[in-house]
Design goal:
By secondary structure, the protein is of the alpha/beta class. The chain has helices at 22-27, 29-35, 69-81, 100-106, 161-177, 204-221, 235-240, 251-263, 266-276, 278-281, 303-306, 311-323, 383-388, 393-406; strands at residues 3-6, 39-42, 46-47, 58-62, 85-90, 137-140, 143-146, 181-184, 193-194, 199-200, 226-229, 247-249, 290-293, 327-331, 414-420, 424-430, 435-441, 447-449, 458-460, 463-466, 469-472, 477-481. The structure holds modified acarbose pentasaccharide (ACG). The site of modified acarbose pentasaccharide has 23 residues, from helix 8.
């Protein structure tokens, strides 16, 4: 299964207002079929005052800028006919300040008042978030509310059991509309404040209890619902959630992949596989939660920018992603080499620019909701240009996806580290039936590969043959079946 993280606002506009929408996406569903994507993960599309959509003002409505419920239903139906699946990003940890729930709570109305967390005499109003140092208590009128992600997103207080019931209805609603599953935002944050001691504290056990109940409900409606969790933390914390969700984003591994390519560091890569992909290294381990592997997402600097605009390294990083076990995710625009540098997780617009359909940057269906800062007209990232060019980034990724789909065993395969040097890592990637020997060249110089047993190698990158020896170019991958 190949996942594509989509920001609808930046995709395709059907009504000429410069904002991507459901009908626009429906017109362009073949784009994903061509690329080989199986499942589209929608960044939040429910009603929200924010460009990113993570603060929801009505959990039962779509963002009117994107279209209505019928438009969405129709889109999902058409997509299903083409074999695509759709996952909705549902941030249930908090809502928007302008939501009816919060506005009623401010007036002390029940049950809404209990759905939020208010300060009391024990509260340290200056308490800071453990990353970034932002304040977590915010004043509104004569009250202070808890909002871990900032003043625009009051946290919902799940100590109120009514809220569990309400959220079950919300999940149910979006399954009925036709979604195939959910990307569960901020999964470790549902219970992250200790109300007895009035201090920030993750309560993983309570989170797991909450998610188990929600997932049982979801699965009772849709047995095969796709569930992806976002627990952005070190491997030891991520491990605590093992088995709860079907797929979990492997944040630590995303850093390993990018840093190993950036610094050409084979040891970092090998150590990273051992620590972040331990279930895939241990031949006997059962893989309970699949590793959701990715290089970047909407909270991060884009891949090619992270790699100092080095296109060879960018393609090499993608080759790592698609040749390793786990479930690969790409972020929209990554297939084109779109650029973008994120200054802070509080401001991510810079990596969410409109995708370019035309080389000149403008035209029918082009979204223009914000100006181009990193991806100028004529910069080569346009779909019309890359689609036709067989050497484009788009077609490079398309070939990686095609390889992946020809070898479905890769998602659950095991890894054995065979050898590594400063330049090269040699892995065995296998299951009981099939297997590959994979050579990764991390440096910019070519390496000679003993080709005694190599027949019909698959190569991502470049190579040459001299006197029957294979020379694998820098930042290239060679795969040999055994
Ligand atoms: C999700 C979405 C994000 C969204 C929200 C809120 C949540 O993807 O777009 O913000 O709905 C934390 C949360 C994540 C959250 C990000 C933005 N992402 O846990 O759920 O913030 C540390 C912390 C992490 C933290 C991360 C952020 O531990 O918890 O993620 O920093 O940088 C090593 C360590 C690891 C450490 C990293 C990075 O890997 O192991 O622990 O992570 O280094 O230092 C959206 C908007 C926001 C808005 C909000 C309401 O983007 O602007 O405020 O909605």
């Amino acid at each position: 299964m190949i996942f594509y993280e989509l920001y609808l606002r930046s995709f395709y506009d059907s009504n000429g207002d410069g904002i991507g929408d459901f009908k626009g996406l429906q017109e362009k569903l073949d784009y994903f079929v061509d690329l080989g994507v199986d499942c589209i993960w929608f960044l939040p599309v429910l009603k929200s005052p924010a460009f990113h959509g993570y603060t929801i003002s009505d959990f039962y409505e779509t963002n009117p800028l994107y279209g209505n419920l019928n438009d969405l239903k129709k889109l999902l139906e058409e997509g299903h006919k083409k074999g695509l699946k759709f996952v909705l990003d549902l941030p249930v940890n908090h809502c928007a300040v302008n939501s009816v729930w919060f506005q009623k709570a401010l007036k002390n109305e029940k049950p809404y008042y209990d759905w939020f967390l208010w300060s009391n005499e024990k509260t340290d109003l200056d308490e800071k978030r453990h990353w970034g140092g932002d304040k977590i208590w915010h004043k509104i009128g004569d009250k202070y509310f808890y909002g871990l992600f900032g003043p625009g997103s009051p946290d919902l207080n799940y100590n109120s059991k009514d809220l569990w019931k309400e959220m079950k209805k919300v999940f149910e609603k979006w399954l009925e509309i036709g979604f195939d599953g959910f990307r569960l935002d901020a999964a470790k944050h549902v219970f992250d404040y200790d109300e007895k001691k009035m201090v920030f504290k993750y309560q993983h056990d309570k989170n797991i209890e909450f998610w188990n109940e929600m997932l049982t409900h979801i699965k009772s409606i849709k047995k095969d619902a796709i569930i992806i969790s976002e627990v952005w933390d070190d491997s030891d914390i991520v491990k605590k959630y093992d088995g709860v969700f079907e797929i979990g984003f492997n944040f630590p591994f995303s850093y390993i992949l990018k840093n190993s390519v950036k610094k050409e560091d084979t040891k970092n890569f090998v150590d990273g596989i051992e620590s972040c992909m331990s279930d895939y290294i241990d031949e006997t381990a059962e893989i309970k939660t699949k590793s959701g592997n990715f290089l970047t997402n909407h909270d991060m600097t884009r891949l090619i920018s992270e790699l100092s605009d080095n296109e060879k390294k960018y393609r090499f990083a993608l080759s790592l992603l698609f040749t390793l076990p786990g479930i690969p995710f790409i972020f929209y625009g990554e297939e084109l080499g779109m650029k973008g540098i994120v200054q802070s997780v509080n401001y991510t617009e810079d990596c969410q620019e409109p995708i370019h359909w035309y080389d000149i940057g403008f035209g029918v269906g082009q979204t223009e909701w914000k100006g181009y800062k990193f991806n100028d007209p004529y910069s080569g990232v346009a779909i019309e240009k890359q689609f036709k060019d067989e050497n484009s980034n788009f077609n490079f990724l398309r070939s990686l996806i095609a390889f992946r789909k020809e070898n479905p065993f890769l998602s659950n395969a095991k890894i054995k580290i065979l050898e590594y040097s400063k330049n090269m890592v040699k892995l065995k990637i296998f299951n009981e039936i099939s297997g590959f020997i994979v050579y990764y060249n991390f440096k910019n110089t070519s390496i000679k590969i003993n080709n005694k047993n190599i027949e019909n190698p698959i190569i991502f990158g470049n190579f040459s043959i001299k006197n029957k020896d294979i020379y694998l170019d820098g930042y290239s991958v060679l795969i040999s079946k055994y």
